[in-house]
Amino acid sequence: CWVWSPYCRIGQKYPLAVDIISLRFERELLKNLTDDPSEALLVYRTEATRQNFKRNFQEYSGCVLGDARTDVARFAKLSAALVGDMWRLWKTTSSVEPGLFGRYCTLVGKRAMFAAFFQRHQPRFFFGRDDYSIDHIIRNQELRKVGGTSIGMMHGIPTNTYISEWNEVDFDIYLVMGWHLYEKFYRDMWPSHMKVVATGCFRMTPEYFARRHQTRPDDIAYFPIVHRNSDFLMAETFRVAEHFSDRTVYVKMKAGRGDVEQQRFERQVEQAPANVVIYEDVVAYDLLLKISYALGAGPT
User: Fold this and answer.
1) d(CA 281, CA 289)
2) Tens of pLDDT, residues 210-221
3) Is the pTM for the entire model greater than 0.90?
4) Please, how many CA atoms are within 13 Å of residue 196, restricted to the half-sphere of its CB?
């Protein structure tokens, strides 16, 4: 939550703030972008994430996104703005479906939180990993008010499953995997102020790229995702494994799923054929360089 505090330091400046959601990628990013750990502020989305990751980033300053503190004058202004925004929302959108109206209301509170956050922490650049969330639009608007620049990175290949979310991207600089999707689908939808930069896939390191033409065995990988037909899809994968009994079939569950989904996955693979191997490394490229064929279910 955002609160007034007479003890907080207002206006701490950093060259870079980074949205921390994983270990391997963020460590490599920080190593390449900073010469001194004091140059970066690590922003964890939840306290649980900070507790899980902070031992791996002990040399960096870190905070939770909700660590928003402000002085009493600013607190009064933010409170008044919040009340005014809620009243305008009620007058203009209270007729929409209750769930949607509730989502609008949370954005009003989050705007106040982000405003207080960026009064306390003032990064020159903020590297965000949440282009699929409308929260990033509110955050980046408040970041610009303190002179900061937002940098985003395409979360994945935007298929029709998530098309509405990728219509609503708003960063100052947006890193994408290639020009095709932007030129064909999104040029007229994305903000004109947003600088779009084609960088390739962020997981494809120079070392992986150099190995792309190596000879690989005719093995198969399946990349499942949480899906209403996941039991059927896993059963079909096992049928493929039984048919190609001379090959190894790797199954890699999408990382970061909840306990219920993980338990379902463990139940699904209990009856796996002998040539099925569960691949647990979080990075998929080592696996992709072991195989010739990949199967996917849903946006992976």
Assistant:
1) 13
2) 988 889 989 999
3) no
4) 18
